[in-house]
Amino acid sequence: MSASSGWVTGDVREEQPPLSRVIVMDQNLPAPLATQRVEIRRITIAPGYAAGLHVHNGPVFGSIETGSVVYQIEGEPETVLKAGDVFYEPEGVRIARFDARDDGVTFLGYFLLADGMNAELVFPEV
């Protein structure tokens, strides 16, 4: 075995798998959803910009590509999401914070849409 085909831990050589599959999120939806399509958007938020309180008309999943954001569902603790982290914004739930930190943020948003539905965002009064 060549040195490039495995790695050494102490005196034991272990094989590196050629493929790895890791579940990073397994999210139950509150009700069955007749998804007809998924719209994927790359969204960039400038450093320090606060997106504000908002609500989506359908469930949104996302993964942070670069930067970081303060994420909070109303009534729950805030958390900082960084590159590689994933998140879920339930349909109709108030997202209190999705605020880019000093490094800004770019993420992929996956919008699950029923037939004839377009992704919409509402900014309710506080």
Structure description:
The protein has 126 residues and is an all-beta fold. Helix content is 0%, strand content 49%. The chain has strands at residues 6-9, 12-15, 37-45, 55-56, 60-73, 79-82, 86-89, 95-113, 121-122. Strands 3, 5, 6, 7 and 8 form a five-stranded antiparallel sheet that branches. The protein has a two-stranded antiparallel ribbon with strand order 1-2. The chain is globular. The protein starts with 5 loop residues before the first strand and ends with a strand. Residues 1-5 have low confidence and may be disordered.
Characteristic key phrases:
126 residues; mainly beta; five-stranded antiparallel β-sheet; two-stranded antiparallel sheet; 9 strands; globular
Amino-to-carboxy terminus distance:
63 Å
Number of helices: 0
Average pLDDT: 91
* Unreliable segments of 5+ consecutive residues: 1-5
**Biggest β-sheet description:** 5 strands, antiparallel
Shape: globular
Structural class: mainly beta
The ordered H/E elements are EEEEEEEEE
> What value does the Rg take, in angstroms?
19 Å
Sheet-strand content, in percent, reads over 45%
